[in-house]
Amino acid sequence: MFQSTSSFNNRSAKPIASAFLAGDIILGGLFPVHHKGIGEQPCGEINTDRGIERLEAMLFTIDEINRDPSILPGIHLGASLYDTCARGTYALEQSLEFIRASFYSLDTSEFVCSDGSQATAKLSPTKVTGVVGGSYSTVSMQVANLLRLFKLPQVSYASTSASLSDKTRYDYFLRTVPPDTLQAKALVDIVQEFNWTYVSTVSSEGEYGSSGIDYFQQEARAKNICIAANVKIPAKSTNATFDRTIRDLLEKPEAKVVIVFVRIEDAKGLLDAATRFNLTGQHVWVASDAWGRQDAPVKDNQLAAQGAITLELQSTPIKTFESYFQNLNPRGNKRNPWFREYWEAINKCSWKENKYTSTSRNIRYCTGAEKLTRKITQQEGKVQFIYDAVYALAIALDTMQKTLCPNTTRLCRAMERIDGERLLKDFLLNVSFNGKCLIELY
Length: 442
Ligand SMILES: N[C@@]1(C(=O)O)CC2(CC2)[C@H]2[C@H](C(=O)O)[C@H]21
Known about the structure:
Layout: E1 2-8, E2 15-21, E3 25-31, E4 34-36, E5 43-46, H1 52-67, E6 77-83, H2 88-103, E7 130-132, H3 137-147, E8 154-156, E9 173-175, H4 180-193, E10 198-204, H5 207-222, E11 226-233, H6 239-250, E12 257-261, H7 264-276, E13 284-287, H8 302-305, E14 309-310, H9 319-326, H10 339-347, H11 383-404, H12 420-427
Parallel strand pairs: 3-6, 3-7, 7-8, 8-9, 10-11, 10-12, 12-13, 13-14
Antiparallel strand pairs: 1-2, 2-6, 4-5
Helix pairs in contact: 1-11, 2-3, 4-5, 6-7, 11-12
């Protein structure tokens, strides 16, 4: 049984949308379904690059595990997935849904109504056993600070900031991707490979950009690579910010190579400014995984971006996910509450079921016959890491169940309330993949 749910948190009347799959054990998930909003708006446009496909990758993996008789054979895995809007504070609010059940008492004896009748439990919040996500390091950090208080293991599939390796601060945080210390080394290797010795750097202020570029500069200096301009892009940036960045780079014309360790939105801002300055080929951009294989920065900036070298983490596309994802359709995909919005954005059409909708001439209505056609090489670069994260939790839970409940394939008394500390230390950290996943937990 599955449903897309809306629940009301106790601070606002705004319903919280989530994708929910019922199950005996529920895994939480956090995905940047929408981009950050502008101004006071927490959420912006649907994230057609790194949101829906990743969320569907988790649902797909859970379906696959539930069909696999060798993992949790007597237990149905469920999910409770939320949108982070790529924003730490918003993600924190959504993550409260994961722990509300920890406070929720099913014993309604304390709920006596004024007429003496007995209140009944209306909504028993779903307790999750582990959380997959988030994407952005800034999101994962804020969420990790909350989940650790409730001993909830968290496995990110995309957060690469080196700070998250500090287990004195993030003791319940794991990830299926390598830290940026390795990405910084890779960037230095590229610079050395081309015998470049004088480069400029551009980085986004904030955890990902600042720590990533610091590691690069440490590695570069150790290899006698000199840093020309070292430009920081503030969190709240405008076109003028990026114009200033380009001017700073142009003041060091000998440094043709620019190391770019910025958020995806800043990569687009930088190239938009390069286009405004009619820069075509003056610089060789060498960028980290935020730019990676994303189209957004390069769209409309092909001349300014030509010759760029961008890093994406090495991953293997999940072939079976391709047919699953390409066959999704809003009519059939009711468990993902954001899929229709995604479909409209991808197909540039409006999905209206309301038969009284105005027949405005300038709206192209979706027919439902559109297809998410693409080649497998276009599979989002971190889908494998989501697959790995879900399997890591599932294999750990399977081993825990076989250890604590040896006489049954179902949940026994010892797993009625799953001990997150034991799940993490005795099982998750000892997960070994039998060919299912190729990446260690970092
Ligand atoms: N590696 C990232 C991080 O924040 O740790 C850099 C990024 C901000 C652009 C997001 C990438 C992604 O979601 O694939 C993460």
